[in-house]
C-alpha cells in the first residue's frame, strides 16, 4: 500500500525574496569591453624593458598629435623617491602600492605642469634596485609583484599629472644605474638627440635628493651622492628638491671622492723612475693592498718584464692552490709574485713560511690606494672593456669594506727584506682618462 502523503504544513522559512542585483560595472566599461580592439581607447602609459635591466614607461595621449620639441631641447629631469614622492607618514620607503606614497610637496604637480607647458621634455630617472627582473622560477612571483606594484604606483601618479612624461628605472648595477649616464643616453637615442647642440645643456637640469648632504634638524643624512654626480657627469645643473620646489638656499657640500681632482694632484707628484727592481737571483714578492688598488696592472707593467711568475687567487680560487702553484715555480728556480690582497699578518705568514722553506728572501709591495679610490677603479674597470684586460666582474661593496676593517699594515718584523710603497697612478689614453674622471660609484661602502 502506498503511504498517505503527509499533510501540508506551514512553510518553515519565508519565501525567497527576489532582490534586484545592482551591477558595479559601468555602461562605459561594458561598451569598451565589447568594442573591437581598433575602437578601444589606447593606453596612455606604455611600458617596456630594455636589456633585462631598464624599465621604461612613457605617458602620452595617443588621441592627440605629439607636441613637437623646441630645439635645442630643454630637458627637465627628476629623481622619484624623496624628490617627487615620499612615503605616507609611518610608511616604508620601498613598500610600493597605489596608496603607499604621496607627493613630496603639494607644489610638485603644479610645478611640473608649468615646466611641461613652457616646452620642457619631462623625464624621471630613478634607481630601483629593489625591483628584480631576473628570469628564474624561484624569484618569479616576488619579482613580478615588485614590478607590478611599481607600475601601478607610477600609473597612479602620472595620471594625476596627465601630460607627456617618461620614466626610466634602473634595476641593475650596470650602465643605467646612476650616476652612470646610461639612462640619459637612452633619452638621447629615443628622441634623436645624438648630435652636439641638440640639447640646451645650459637650461636643462636634474633634481634629486641623493646629494651627499649632512644630517640637519629637518632631515636625515643623504644616503648617497648619485643624483648630484649624475648631473655632473651629464654636464647639466643640479638642484635638491628643497632648492627647486621650495626655493631654499644651496647647502655647503664636500664630495667624498673627486676623480678629476685626484688626477690633477697625481700629475703634480714627481714620477717614480724605478718603482721596483729585482734584488736577488730568486725571490718571493707579495702584494698587499685592497681590491682595485692597481696590483695586477703593476705586475704586468713592472714585474712581468723582469721575469716574475704570478699567482693570483682570483684566478686560482683558493690560497692552497696559490701556494701549490708558487712552490712549483720556485722549485723550477723562478721568482714569484703573489698578486693577492694579503690584508693582515696571518695571511702574509703563509708566504713568509714558503720563503723560509726555500731559503730565499721575501719582499713586500704595499699599495696605498684608499677604499674610495679602489671602489672607483673597480667600477670603471668592470664597465669599460678597454680598461679591463682580464674581464674582471664588478665586486660587491663588502669586498672593500671587509679589507678596510681587517687591514693591518705590513712590517719589516714579519720577515720582509724590504717594503716598497706604491701610490696609484692612472695610465691610459686621453679617452680613457676622460672616462675615468667621471663619477661611477653610486654609494661608497666606507
Automatic annotation (TrEMBL):
Gene3D superfamilies: HAD superfamily/HAD-like (3.40.50.1000), P-loop containing nucleotide triphosphate hydrolases (3.40.50.300)
Coiled-coil regions listed in the entry: none
Region (Disordered): 1-35
Source taxon at top rank: Eukaryota
Gene Ontology BP annotations: DNA repair
Keywords for this protein: Kinase, Transferase
GO function terms (MF aspect): ATP-dependent polydeoxyribonucleotide 5'-hydroxyl-kinase activity; double-stranded DNA binding; polynucleotide 3'-phosphatase activity
Keyword Magnesium: no
Signal sequence extent: none
Name of this protein: DNA kinase/phosphatase Pnk1
Organism: Knufia fluminis
Amino acid at each position: 500500500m502506498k503511504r498517505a502523503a503527509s499533510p501540508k504544513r506551514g512553510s518553515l522559512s519565508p519565501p525567497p525574496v527576489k532582490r534586484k542585483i545592482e551591477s558595479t560595472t559601468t555602461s562605459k566599461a561594458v561598451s569598451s569591453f565589447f568594442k573591437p580592439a581598433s575602437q578601444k581607447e589606447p593606453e596612455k602609459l606604455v611600458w617596456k624593458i630594455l636589456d633585462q635591466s631598464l624599465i621604461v614607461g612613457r605617458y602620452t595621449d595617443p588621441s592627440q598629435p605629439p607636441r613637437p620639441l623646441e630645439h635645442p631641447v630643454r630637458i627637465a629631469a627628476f629623481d622619484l623617491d624623496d624628490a617627487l614622492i615620499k612615503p605616507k607618514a609611518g610608511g616604508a620607503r620601498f613598500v610600493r602600492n597605489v596608496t603607499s606614497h604621496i607627493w613630496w610637496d603639494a607644489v610638485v604637480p603644479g610645478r611640473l605642469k608649468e615646466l611641461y607647458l613652457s616646452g620642457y621634455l619631462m623625464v624621471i630617472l630613478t634607481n630601483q634596485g629593489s625591483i628584480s627582473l631576473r628570469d628564474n622560477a624561484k624569484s618569479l612571483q616576488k619579482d613580478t609583484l615588485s614590478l607590478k606594484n611599481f607600475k601601478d604606483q607610477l600609473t597612479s601618479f602620472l595620471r594625476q599629472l596627465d601630460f607627456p612624461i617618461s620614466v626610466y628605472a634602473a634595476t641593475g648595477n650596470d650602465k643605467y644605474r646612476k650616476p652612470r649616464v646610461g639612462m640619459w643616453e637612452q633619452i638621447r637615442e629615443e628622441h634623436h638627440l645624438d648630435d652636439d647642440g641638440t640639447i640646451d645643456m645650459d637650461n636643462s637640469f636634474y633634481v634629486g635628493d641623493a646629494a651627499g648632504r649632512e644630517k640637519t634638524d629637518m632631515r636625515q643624512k643623504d644616503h648617497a651622492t648619485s643624483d648630484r654626480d649624475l648631473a655632473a657627469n651629464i654636464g647639466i645643473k643640479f638642484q635638491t628638491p628643497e632648492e627647486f620646489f621650495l626655493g631654499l638656499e644651496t647647502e655647503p657640500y664636500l664630495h667624498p671622492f673627486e676623480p678629476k681632482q685626484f688626477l690633477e694632484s697625481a700629475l703634480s707628484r714627481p714620477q717614480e723612475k724605478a718603482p721596483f727592481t729585482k734584488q736577488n737571483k730568486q725571490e718571493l714578492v707579495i702584494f698587499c693592498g685592497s681590491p682595485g688598488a692597481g696590483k695586477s696592472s703593476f705586475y704586468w707593467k713592472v714585474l712581468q718584464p723582469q721575469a716574475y711568475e704570478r699567482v693570483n687567487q682570483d684566478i686560482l680560487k683558493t690560497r692552497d692552490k696559490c701556494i701549490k702553484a708558487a712552490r712549483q715555480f720556485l722549485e723550477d728556480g723562478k721568482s714569484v709574485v703573489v698578486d693577492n690582497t694579503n690584508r693582515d699578518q696571518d695571511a702574509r705568514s703563509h708566504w713568509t713560511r714558503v720563503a723560509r722553506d726555500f731559503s730565499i728572501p721575501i719582499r713586500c709591495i704595499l699599495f696605498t690606494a684608499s677604499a674610495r679610490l679602489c671602489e672607483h677603479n673597480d667600477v670603471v674597470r668592470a664597465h669599460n672593456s678597454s680598461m679591463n684586460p682580464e674581464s674582471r666582474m664588478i665586486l660587491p661593496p663588502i669586498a672593500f669594506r671587509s679589507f678596510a676593517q681587517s687591514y693591518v699594515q705590513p712590517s719589516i718584523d714579519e720577515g720582509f727584506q724590504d717594503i716598497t710603497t706604491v701610490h696609484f697612478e692612472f695610465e691610459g689614453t686621453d679617452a680613457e682618462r676622460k672616462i675615468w674622471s667621471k663619477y661611477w660609484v653610486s654609494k661608497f661602502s666606507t
